[in-house]
Design a protein that fits this description.
The mean pLDDT is 80. The protein is mainly β. The protein has two domains: 69 residues, no CATH class; 94 residues, no CATH class. The chain is rod-shaped and about 95 Å long. The protein contains no helices and eight strands. A two-stranded antiparallel ribbon has the order 1-2. A two-stranded antiparallel sheet has the order 3-4. One of its GO terms (biological process) is cell-matrix adhesion. Pfam families: Integrin_A_Ig_2 (PF20805), Integrin_A_Ig_3 (PF20806). GO terms for molecular function: integrin binding. Keywords: Glycoprotein, Integrin, Membrane.
Length: 172
């Protein structure tokens, strides 16, 4: 009929985490109670795709041979929001009309103006992530002409990187 907060106490019993909730005492015969419980469980990274709870109703006053119990399995879903940010330094580049590409040159300035593209991948949570793969396609050719001459590719923060075989083909 009314809503009341339960008094619940966590404890460890036989190596298992147990939460004991007092539903009421004394309770009238034939009483019906509905209980909504919200559990916060941490460390689910290694739990697989589900977690199982064993619920049991016991009476302190009269031992019942049935001790009504039920098993509830709840699916576990990891949630993490990834965010990719990127910019170019400088943001705008204009080649002078007098500039010409010098074939076979080892000087970077003979291949164009240096532009650095920086990409940051952020995990905004709430969960942790591992095994993330970021594939970045950079158009370096326009037909048979060089659009962007790719000099190098680097990472920070313990990431591994594999690159396109056409990286710095003239060894500038």
């Amino acid at each position: 009929q009314g809503q009341e907060k339960l008094s619940c106490n966590p404890k460890k019993e036989n190596g298992t985490h147990v939460v004991l909730c007092e539903l009421g005492n004394p309770m009238k015969a034939g009483a019906r109670i509905t209980v909504d419980m919200e559990l916060s469980v941490s460390g689910l990274e290694d739990m697989g795709d589900a977690i199982t709870f064993h619920l049991q109703l016991r009476s302190k006053n009269s031992p019942s041979p049935s001790n009504a119990s039920v098993t509830v399995t709840v699916p576990v879903e990891a949630e993490a929001e990834m965010q990719l940010r990127g910019n170019s330094l400088p943001a705008v580049t204009v080649l002078p009309t007098s500039w010409h590409w010098v074939e076979g040159s080892q000087r970077p300035e003979d291949h164009g103006i240096k532009v650095e593209h920086v990409y940051e991948l952020h995990n905004r949570g709430p969960g942790t992530v591992s095994g993330v793969t970021l594939s970045l396609a950079v158009p370096h050719l326009l037909g048979d002409r060089v659009l962007l001459y790719l000099l190098e590719l680097g990472t920070e923060g313990g990431m591994n990187c594999s690159h396109h075989p056409d990286l710095n083909p003239a060894q500038v």
